[in-house]
Amino acid sequence: MNLRQIEVFHAIMITGSLSAAGRLLHVTQPAISRVLASIELRLGYALFERFKGRLHPTKEARKLFQEVESIQAGVNRLNDMAAGLAGHGGGLVSVVSSPSFGEWLIPAATAKFCARNPGVRIRYRPLGMDALLPQLLLGYADIAISIFKPEHPNLITTELAQGEIVCVLPAGHRLARENVIQPAMLAGEMLVGYSRDTPLGETLCAHLDPQGHNLLAPAIEVRSSQTACSFVRQGVGVALVDSYGLTDALMHGLVVRRIEPAIPLFVYVSHSRIEPPPSIAKAFLTQFSQIVKKELPAMTQAILKRA
Fold first, then answer.
1. What is residue 88's predicted lDDT score, i.e. its pLDDT?
2. 109, 226, 246, 284 — which has fewest CB within 10 A?
3. The pLDDT of residue 276
4. Long-range contacts of range 112-118, CB-CB < 8 Å, 24 or more positions apart?
5. Which part of the chain is the HTH lysR-type domain (predicted)?
């Protein structure tokens, strides 16, 4: 398959129809049909089946699509680099992070960075750890900011700062009058938490249930601290969350208390050992580091002091 055929196949897969693929690529539907026919003729098998007016990918098409996505992402990166080298836009910084950093830390760093570097584009994606590492290792992202330390020989990871796990309660909850929350106090509470196969769930189990007795097994499993807070705000249980995403807006209607003994978390920054980040990405990281070290402790303290 040549690049044009790859582009057309990718467009059909993500849009689900020939006409939509044509609109995406700014060509006619017959043109898309001709390219698809040439692909299937060259490969020797059908890629789509028609059912009720829509195209449904075959098993072979789905397997091909996994590889095509990587190729298409590489083409997109090439176009971004070419635009940057030509001086169109002043460059691109691609950042991925654990979701909590997207609440305010990365937006705050981006605001100050863009004010000092007009024309630079930021591509930011909040991702779970399972999706975050491939983005970095495959070169789709310049830097990754995570709550947990990635372990891979092709990455260089630096510990940037420290945060903590805190307890989030609905306003008026019986435990809201406590200054700190001990794990035993949560017995009998409906806990909004995380499965053991997630980094946050693994951390909580290691500190609160090292013997694996499911003493604080979550009644409701979620994938992020932000989602956990949304459940608690609706009166559905209590939650243990990371402190990085605490904001006045997110904590509206909630009470936040420290856990005792403390459960520390860290801010990790990673980049490829093989292909270090460009200077403009390093400049963004410097700005993010300043925000984390100066403003994160103050924000956390202010949230914890609220009644």
1. 46
2. 226
3. 86
4. 112/287, 112/291, 113/283, 113/284, 113/287, 113/288, 116/287, 117/90, 117/280, 117/283, 118/90
5. 1-58
